Amino acid sequence: MTNDPDYRIGSLHRGLQALLAFIDHPEMTFSEFKEQLNLSNATAKRVLYTLHENRLIRLDEKENRYYLGIKAFELGVAAAKTHTLLQISIKYMETVANEVGETVILSKYDEGDQLYLHKTEPLGGLKVLTPDGRRQPLHYGLGRTILAFLEEHLWEQYVPHEIPSYSMRTVVNRDEFIEDLRRIRRKGYAVERGEYREGVVGVAVPLFTQASEVWGLLGVALPNSRFNEDKEKLLVTLLTKASKAITLETAR
Questions:
Q1: Residue 129's pLDDT is what?
Q2: Cα–Cα–Cα angle for 18, 21, 23, nearest 5°?
Q3: What is the three-class DSSP state of 177?
Q4: Total-model pTM
Q5: Higher pLDDT pick, 155 / 18
Q6: Contact 188, 203 (CB under 8 A)
Q7: 88 Cβ contact partners less than 8 Å away, ≥ 6 residues apart
Q8: How confident is the model at residue 83 (pLDDT cuts 50, 70, 90)?
Q9: Coil, strand or helix: which one is 207?
Q10: Backbone angles phi, psi at 202, to 5 degrees
Q11: Quick one: how far is CA 99 from the chain centroid?
């Protein structure tokens, strides 16, 4: 497929960009929508009218806010059904979740970010605040699991020189953060102890293609009160086993 920007249909491209804006901004007033996309009043009205007419967005007339509509939901469901990596991974996520009684997370490496694809939350498991489909930078949370297994020259691009502090435990020194990436690569997995959410521990392993390129991560999030050295060993064993099984099955 061509990458020539002159080949695309301009009006369709603008309409799709307008729809995609709702991913990062799930609800918007008319003014917010217009400013987000830098549109004139007239153009913004026509774009919203067209999306609304096709039920891709809906308008809450009481709050005067626009949201994604039922057809956008149907598109997402249809996409999930044909996402091979997701469909293969889910059954292994459920196996790990049932084995340890903790929440299991699946994220994908996408355009320099980690994209949360799915989470399995067993009864009594930790409630993960990040919804499916949400993006986060690779230096955030367990995303470093992916980052550690990328080529090192990409670290310069993806590790900010000023790392935001999310908690008292966040590693904000860039040199220390990069050294942690090297540790993760040597060990083969990452452990995150309350660096992004107080009282929460995350353990994750990378997911690889058959060509040994990292494409995502499989992780577990749990309260610090349920984490110890034995639990770490168990989680790493189960996650590593699941990761290898996913790689083998996606190659078939």
A1: 63
A2: 135
A3: helix
A4: 0.74
A5: 155
A6: no
A7: 246, 249, 250
A8: low
A9: strand
A10: -125, 140
A11: 24
